[in-house]
Amino acid sequence: MSEGTAMHIGIIGLGKMGANMRDRLRANGVEVTGFDRNPEISDVAGTAELIAALPAPRLVWVMVPAGAATDAVIAELANELSAGDLVIDGGNSRFTDDFAHAALLAASGVHYVDAGVSGGVWGLTNGFGVMVGGAAEQVERAMPVFDALRPEGPRDESFVHAGAVGAGHYAKMVHNGIEYALMQSYAEGYELLEKRSDLITDVPGVFKAWQRGTVVRSWLLELLVRALDDDPELQNIEGFVEDSGEGRWAIEEAINNAVPVPTISAAVFARFVSRQDDSPAMKAVAALRNQFGGHAVKTTD
Q1: Closest CA to 118 of 141, 153, 146, 142
Q2: Do residues 32 and 53 touch, judged by C-beta distance below 8 A?
Q3: Collapsed DSSP state (helix, strand, coil) of residue 159
Q4: Half-sphere exposure of 135 toward its Cβ, with a 13 Å CA cutoff?
Q5: In the annotation, is 179 catalytic?
Q6: Residues 199-208: b if buried by 16+ CB within 10 A, e if exposed
Q7: DSSP state for residue 37 in the 8-state scheme
């Protein structure tokens, strides 16, 4: 891409986050051609058309579910892209998958960067936190994209080049493990307050009062307040909570490296309990996941 030419990238996968990323990039001056299997939201009919629309050397961002779906897209791109092109996997792939993806693409001369992305459905307006792994020159090449995605302010407060290939998804795995534990702490506090309704007559008000000045204030707390504003007793949500993989992977890594992670472990196991018993704490976790990530909840209807 010649100097002065506007950045133009392709995005494969326009789900909740992919579509918001496309919109945010466009709003910040990056040209985007997006492909999704849903023709109603796709800009092109297929991957080949997307590749043809991009200027060489191309930059393609993959934003599809981790595992088999990402594997299939990477394999297709390895066959269709040209030497010098760059693929960024921005999904929640396991970091060990990055090694295989990078090797497969490298056989065709295609570069690879993995990007852990946080921000959920709010990323469009608030910006996304980005953690990447890969060669420094490829990360620098994609920096206009990362800068367009992240919030305004100092770059090092919302973006990190964490290390070599795999480091971005590893950092995101740990991030999500911490997220599990934080949500579980708020949820257990909610249940303890709710249990003493004879004494605590305004549970939502307690959480709302913690938003300024307290040491437990955070964006997750703000989202819990938002959920309680919508449904003060969480009557419309079942205490059933899925886990998306990163928490389990973090525990496996902790075991492999003899790192004690009792809080993260307990938070993951609590989600398993949620599938057996409908508890107020798990209602709070379910509500939080819905607020920040748009994750589906089971309603009590």
Answers
A1: 146
A2: no
A3: strand
A4: 10
A5: yes
A6: eeeebbeebb
A7: S
Distance from C-alpha of 178 to C-alpha of 155, rounded to nearest angstrom: 22
Q: 166 with 253: CB under 8 angstroms?
A: no
Annotated catalytic residue: which of 31, 40, 152, 172? 172
Q: Residue 34: which of 11, 55, 51, 57 has the closest Cα?
A: 11
Q: Which two tokens stand for residue 300?
A: 């009590």
> Would you mind telling me the total number of residues written for the chain in this entry?
301
- Tokens encoding 273: 């309990």
**Separation CA 16–CA 152 (nearest Å):** 22
Given 76, 179, 194, 298, which residue is catalytic?
179
Facing residues of 152 across strands? none
Q: Residue 115 in 3-state DSSP? A: strand
Residue 67 token pair: 């595992």
Active site residue 157: no
Output the pTM of the full model.
0.89
pLDDT in tens, 155-188: 999 999 999 999 999 999 999 999 999 999 999 9
Of 153-157, 168-172, 228-232, 239-243, which gets the smallest average pLDDT? 239-243
